[in-house]
Amino acid sequence: SDIPIGSYNLIFSKNKYVSSKIANVSVIANNITQITSVTLEAAPGSISGNFKLEGEEKHTGITVSVGSHTVQTDDNGEFTLTEIPAGPRTLIATKSGFESYQAIISLSPGEEFSLDNQTLSFSVGTIKGVSVLQAATNHSGITVSVDGTTRSTQTNAAGDYQLSGIKQGSY
Angle at CA 106, nearest 5°, toward 121 and 93? Predict the structure, then answer.
């Protein structure tokens, strides 16, 4: 009742949501102008933080992704992902030679989420096999060591050995 006859633009807005505009809405004397439903989209948010690499001084090159949004960490392991849609999102951090990190983050509209001090641990594997002594029936006591590490074990009577927790790599 207080709006003069004419044509107007309607602006719909709310903090942390994307504004919407309907242009050229006509106000006609003695009429009600019906507008269709307007949905405001949640404003995208951001996720930032840092990752560390176990046993490393520089933490560069960790790939951090949420959906199609992907960045690499800097030397300090810091990253920022922007324009992330609100809602539950899966964040994945990976680097060759290290275990992956995965977390579900519930991002509110327009939220600036911080994920700090996460560490990617070394990827580890197991080496196992058999070593025997020629012309012997008891093969126990053969020392098997991984060159360049402090890891070693001894064979059992059958000559079986197993080394677990070996950092991924070539030895």
Answer: 25
- Residues in the chain, overall count: 171
Name the pLDDT band for 165 (thresholds 50, 70, 90): confident
pLDDT computed for residue 1 by the predictor: 59
**Spatial contact of 139 and 158, defined as CB atoms under 8 Å apart:** yes
Q: Which of 103, 108, 83 is nearest to 91 (CA)?
A: 103
Residue holding tokens 């050995």? 161
Comparing 155 with 30, the larger pLDDT belongs to: 155
Q: Are 151 and 126 in contact (CB under 8 A)?
A: no
Beta-bridge partner residues of 113:
47
SS (H, E, C) the chain: CCCCCEEEEEEECCCCECCEEEEEEEECCCCCCCCCCCCCCECCEEEEEEEEECCCCCCCCCEEEECCEEEECCCCCEEEEEEECCEEEEEEEECCCECCEEEEEEECCCCEEEEEEEEECECEEEEEEECCCCCCCCCCCCEEECCCCCCEEECCCCCEEEEEEEECCCC
pLDDT tens, residue by residue, 56-107: 999 999 999 999 999 999 999 999 999 999 999 999 999 999 999 999 999 9
